């Protein structure tokens, strides 16, 4: 498998999704930087720049999922991004495997169109450890099933990702996250979560300033 890295916003949104619905299974899709994608290539490096929370109720490949994926793909193409994977978190605290995750048909549909796709499982046990380590597990589709890859190695494009996400959780930002279940209940809600992206950008900017000040 090629190297997989995540931007702060991508990691934050999937963690916030799980934190908003701790009593539910959750899922969503991963978007990669399209400028770094080689058409038809397998096992290529992926820079996951964003995630789109899908559901906490409607996990299966249904008309609602088809609508969601169509809208996401349209947005991704406009921003030169590609749907490059899937994430999910299980309802049961002890279930942290692909086999127990919801919506696997969605993940299989994604990998049919993008062979280098990855499956991220949210690790519930790590999620409650104050984010001392990344609370996710990476998987790659091979030989007809999702197989774990580099379980203990998660790369981030920017520093202070875990600290940023911890800060967001402490502020209760997960309450503001909108998934497609929320959007379908109220079409005025923003499923792109632009407000959260702006907040993360502001926090990242503050961290950068602090780093520069410490260099003097």
TrEMBL record:
<dbReference type="InterPro" id="IPR037518">
    <property type="entry name" value="MPN"/>
</dbReference>
<feature type="domain" description="MPN">
    <location>
        <begin position="4"/>
        <end position="142"/>
    </location>
</feature>
<dbReference type="InterPro" id="IPR005366">
    <property type="entry name" value="EMC8/9"/>
</dbReference>
<dbReference type="GO" id="GO:0072546">
    <property type="term" value="C:EMC complex"/>
</dbReference>
<comment type="similarity">
    <text>Belongs to the EMC8/EMC9 family.</text>
</comment>
<dbReference type="Pfam" id="PF03665">
    <property type="entry name" value="UPF0172"/>
</dbReference>
<protein>
    <recommendedName>
        <fullName>MPN domain-containing protein</fullName>
    </recommendedName>
</protein>
């Amino acid at each position: 498998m090629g190297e997989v890295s995540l931007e702060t916003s991508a990691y934050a949104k999937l963690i916030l999704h799980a934190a908003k619905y701790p009593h539910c299974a959750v899922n969503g899709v991963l978007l990669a930087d399209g400028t770094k994608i080689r058409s038809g290539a397998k096992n290529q490096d992926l820079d996951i720049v964003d995630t789109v929370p899908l559901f906490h109720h409607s996990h299966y490949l249904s008309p609602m999922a088809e609508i969601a994926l169509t809208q996401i793909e349209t947005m991704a193409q406009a921003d030169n991004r590609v749907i490059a994977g899937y994430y999910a978190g299980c309802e049961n605290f002890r279930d942290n495997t692909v086999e127990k995750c919801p919506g696997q048909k969605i993940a299989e549909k994604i990998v049919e169109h993008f062979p280098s796709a990855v499956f991220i499982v949210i690790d519930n046990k790590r999620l409650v450890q104050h984010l001392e380590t990344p609370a996710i597990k990476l998987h790659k589709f091979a030989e007809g099933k999702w197989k774990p890859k580099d379980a203990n190695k998660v790369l981030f494009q920017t520093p202070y990702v875990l600290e940023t996400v911890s800060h967001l959780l402490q502020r209760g930002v997960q309450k503001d996250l909108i998934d497609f279940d929320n959007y379908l209940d109220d079409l005025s809600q923003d499923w792109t979560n632009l407000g959260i992206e702006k907040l993360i950008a502001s926090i990242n900017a503050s961290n950068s300033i602090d780093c520069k000040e410490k260099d003097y």
